[in-house]
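Before going further, it is useful to explain how the protein records used in this thesis are read. An example of such a record is reproduced below.

***
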Amino acid sequence: MNDSSWGAPPQAGYWGPSDQGPVQGAAPAGPAYDAHDAQHTRPMPIAPDAPAHGGHQDDDRGAARLSGPLFRDEPQQLYDPSQLYDPPQTSPYDPPQAQPYGTYDTPQAHPYGEVPQNPEPMPDASQPAPAPQKKSAGRDLSAAIGVGIGLGVVIVASLFVVKAVFVGVITVAVVVGLWELTTRLEERKGIKAPLVPLALGGAAMVVSGYVRGAEGAWVAMALTALAVLVWRMTQPPEGYLKDVTAGVFAAFYVPFLATFVAMMLTADDGPFRVLTFLVLTVVSDTGAYAVGWRFGKHKLAPRISPGKTREGLLGAIAFAMVAGALCMQFLIDDGRWWQGLLLGLAVAASATLGDLGESMIKRDLGIKDMGTLLPGHGGIMDRLDSLLPTAPVVWLLMVLFGGSG
């Protein structure tokens, strides 16, 4: 026996005694071992898996068997590379495996994250149901009513004392409305409509309409538009077109439409015509609000003004027609109640369109109110939105029913 073979280093590709698997291709150990024979020994190939139709796991065909005193009683094991990577497949009929580390009480995680829980507790049948919340008007009603009464007193006092004083009230409202409109346009859109020519031209329009009638109002409107074009030339040309377009629009929308109120005032019963115009517009708005708040379910124009409903429009028409019949019968010279019905219907339609028109402007600007001058109402323009487009309608119908004198 040659003892030097025990200390020979293992060849590449073979497992040593410290590895877990059997020594592949090693020479058998024992007394019968001959070193001369070991030099001619080649490693045997790894045996393939046993076929499904026959064979046995311990079949040693083509594999080297370990022998000797140390391994005599141990069963034969084959090296299978698939056992290192493929976990053993379990049959669905195998008994369940024990869960390690006491995972029986651990909840299983949801495959897509934590299962959402209902944040609201279940209602208790023994507790009474909460009372439904009342509808909110969206504004301070006490402040709105107080400001409205104050404005009404000022208007009525100036209307029946001296007509020229009421013309001054119209002029002040026009100038403040122009200031609010041009300020919002510049803040939200960067449009610089010239306020100075608009304010001077707007005041001239109101006075011209009162003194010279419709002819004077048209002439003042043309001169105001020209003044806007010239005034804007003193600034850089960038944005000139949009600025003068907004200026001409503002001149028509605020002072020119307000001029029809001054023209109504020139008639013999002018104060009562103006009072009828104001009463019908306020009653129309009040009827729309009251009926829409109480019974409104179907939206009138949700993309423009979500708060307005068809039921509210019907309420505005009904309230305005009743008020129109009473005003025409008792306030207007030679007025008839049926004329008041037509007048009320026209006022309800024009007031609603005027309100929707300014709502469209405010939505385009991204604001809720044009100003904050009037608590509970917003700005002056927020009160003129229904009055401005209604003024020419009432003036025209008054001229048709009772003449211009």
